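It is worth pausing here to work through a concrete case rather than discussing structure prediction in the abstract. The textbook approach is simple: state the sequence, then state the predicted structure, then interpret. We follow exactly that order.
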Amino acid sequence: MRAIDIGTRRVVQAGASATVSEAAGVMRRHQAGCLVVTREQDGRPEPVGIVTDRDLVTRCIAAHFDPATTTLECVMSAPLLHCRPDAPIDEVVDVMQQRGVRRLPLVDDAGVLVGILSTDDVLVALAELADRINQTLNAQPTLDRAYL
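Step two, the predicted structure:
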């Protein structure tokens, strides 16, 4: 299993200069718990950080910053920890465990954001695989009449 096979290709994004209030609105509209922060580089958005709903609360509101004027650049986690889209799932889980993160953006060799992978995505994929294995173990084998 590769990261891109089980991750989400639709990634909510916002520019680093967007305010926390703007980002919260984007996250609400998309029902997303995080967004990848980008900065224009050579005419295209380059992923530079990540912000979760928890970051907005702990790094902005609880710190008494004004959400209307505080930019994502001030509250994002950076540099962006990411993985390759073709990374095997065990490698992704190792990174998540070692770095204590629950989401990893998927960035290709050209630096383009192509998806995002969460621990929930990993759990769903592994549960589906376990279910397939269980179905295989419980299937009644078809007897080959030539051996009767």
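Step three, interpretation. The helical segments are 3-6, 20-30, 53-61, 72-75, 89-99, 119-138. The chain is about 40% helix and 20% strand.
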